[in-house]
Known about the structure:
Two copies of one chain form a homodimer. With 162 residues, chain A is mainly β. Chain A has helices at 45-50, 153-156, and strands at 12-13, 24-26, 30-33, 55-59, 75-81, 89-92, 101-102, 115-126, 131-134, 143-150. The first copy, chain A, has a six-stranded antiparallel beta barrel with strand order 3-4-9-8-5-10. The first copy, chain A, has a three-stranded antiparallel β-sheet with strand order 1-6-7, with no helix packed on it. The longest helix of chain A has 6 residues, at 45-50.
Amino acid sequence: MTDLPEIRPGEVTLPDGLGRAEDAGLVFIGRIRTPWKRGDCPRNIASARAQMSGARIELDPRLAPALTGLAPGQPLLLLYWMHNARRDLLLQAPKHVDAPRGTFALRSPNRPNPIAASSVTLIGLDPATGTLEIDAIDCFDGTPLLDIKPWISTVDMPPERP
Amino acid sequence: MTDLPEIRPGEVTLPDGLGRAEDAGLVFIGRIRTPWKRGDCPRNIASARAQMSGARIELDPRLAPALTGLAPGQPLLLLYWMHNARRDLLLQAPKHVDAPRGTFALRSPNRPNPIAASSVTLIGLDPATGTLEIDAIDCFDGTPLLDIKPWISTVDMPPERP
């Protein structure tokens, strides 16, 4: 637990956690390459976009055929693994909120399953090597990638209010 | 592998897979309760919504405090686990496409990490029991839940085209 965030005042943990995280297993399918490391990472993806920083995905080359059908300009949903997150926080007190808030009401990386989701634009791809260029993302360089999905408005936008 | 989908003509697998899925572990935080079982599940979430079916999340009660701050009417992003999926498919031939397409260009449940993502509307919640009512979803009854996030347009919609 040495590299995990410290508990802040007002934060509440589930002391024994939820048990060992063995209900299912993940495989890292590649890495996200960004300009960011701890200390200089943008606060959110909008800020990363404003810096026009660009980013790259290095997919496991064995999976390159699974990119067939993707085209530059297309929106994507990326899922990736926040490996430095705490998994035992129930209430969190990030600096930008005035009172501790539940983990499921926050986009904090600290959650029982620290999977992050971001929507990006595919700028280019090289199916021979499994490399993708995207517009921007706000994670650390080397973040493990879990999934690439086509972004689809009927699935990825909530329904219109009645 | 007995309960997994059969390989269709034109589909391509990674014969030895990507290795054992042990890069990270998941914990199931609850279950999604729906009217659907194999054979009568809507094709997609839009179809489930059109049926006004409703659905319920039964969160592990120990995690109920982590709902603090969520409010009915709010859009949510749900991540859940497609436990009957194949993880070795590179090219897939679902009935609705005319030629085999890469796994990462499809929303198929069959993918190296079978995590599904859907955007829904929170209809109601009971923080005492950890139960949430949502508008609709297109997964089988009993599907394991991985995460609940507030849906945020700047993160969950791709950027405007320049």
